[in-house]
Each structure stands twice: as C-alpha cells, then as structure tokens.
Design a protein that fits this description.
The chain is built from seven helices and twelve strands. With 267 residues, the protein is of the alpha+beta class.
Amino acid sequence: MAKQIGPHPLAGPIGNTSFYDHPDDGPLARQKSSLDKARVLRDPHFEYTLYNAAEFRRAVAGATALRFAWRQVLKTAADRKLSGRMNSLFLKMVKSDTSSRWGERCLQNGQAGLAEGFEFNKTSKLANVLSLSCASHIDAATGNMYTKIPSFIPGQVLEAAEGATYFNIISVAASLDFVNKTPARYIKETGLIAIDRPTVPALRLEHAVATKAGEFLFLALGVVFYTLPENLPEGLLSKNKRRQLGNGDVPVPYTGTLAIVQTAVAG
C-alpha cells in the first residue's frame, strides 16, 4: 500500500487511485481493483476466495458481538486498532474448527482458549499496569465466574496512567451464542480507589452468568484510571472527547487496560 509523505494531502479518487486518511497511519493511497463482485461469484477460479470470505464473515460477526457486549468498558480500555486485531483473533478461532470442511468452519466448533491473554489495549497491557498474581476461574457447567485479587499496595504494584488520581478494577464477563449472535454481558467493579491509598484489601469479583450448552464464556480483568477533567493530560484525548467529559469536579475515566484472563465452553 502506498503512503503519501508529501506536503499536499488529498482525499478521494484520482483515476484508479483513492486517497484517504487513516486515523493511525496518516494519509494513504490505494489502487482500485479490476475485479467486480459478479465475476468473483461466478468464476470457478475464485472458489477458494469465497471459502475464505465466508469464514472471515463469521469471525467478524463473533468479534463484533463481543465488542458490543463490552462496549461501555472498551470506551476507555481499547486501542484504535482493536477491531482489526479482534477480527484476526476470531479468524484463528474459526480456523481451529477441525470438525468442519474448509469454507464451513465456524466459531462454535473452534477453540475458545485461543482468546486467553488477548489485550484490548495493546499500548497498555494488564500485566504491566497491575503487577499482581490473580486467580481466575470459570465453571462451565454453572456459568459462575470469579477473579480473586490479593491485598496490595497501589504504589508498589500499580503503574498509574499520567495524571491519574483514582483507579477502578473492573471484571467483565460474557456468554456468546455465535449462531444467533446474542451476547449477554456482566460487569463488576471495585469502585474508585485513590492512587495513594496505603493498602487495598483482598478482592473477589464474581459473576453468575446465565448460559446454554455450547456458548463461549469469556472473563476479562482490567483497570480504568480517573482524574478531574481539568487535570487530563494534554494530547491524550481528542478535543471532542475532552468537551464530552466537561469541566466538573467529579473524577472521569479517561484511559485503561483490559485483558481476557479465562475462557470456557458452556457444558
């Protein structure tokens, strides 16, 4: 893919080349393909392409369902390229289906465990932010899930974000029916904890998740940082986002981390 580095930004097509602005990579250019949908659908040379496209659609649908389930948390705990990274992860899960033919492989027959350790914010990984050994568990038969966090001293194990005065440890769970694309979400939080608090007692964040056999179960743990709007670090948020947060005297969430710590398939 060509990348524009000159001083004259462009947008839109010129001949067979389209210019556009990527939120992370800046101005880019790409050429239009000579292929059209009708040819791809009827030409036997594209049979394998259609197989791959069908499996990719299933992967994207699954990734979208999980992002939708956790959308509130991901407002402050996701990087800009999360969608693409999740699509790649869920495509691996589709391809792990060994009981179906190529082109028919699906998420519900794949390996849920491939999602364990996935970071929703690649620039702020959970293990780097919270240096603790936490115990997580999912009971696939009942849907009960929990994460146990030992007592800790924030100043010793927490890598606070710039400007943060409070943090909130959050646990999110989901059960996903990939056939009907119906996510169920669950959220538990500790509430605001001062960054300079001497000691935080042991915590247990627990969920009672309603499940059906075959559903994928996900459990994630994260940390969200808060500060007063007037103390938000410059350049961290867009002007539009800063306006949305306002100028009040209540701490607001502005960045965080989230990672999948446990998965299972409901029995």
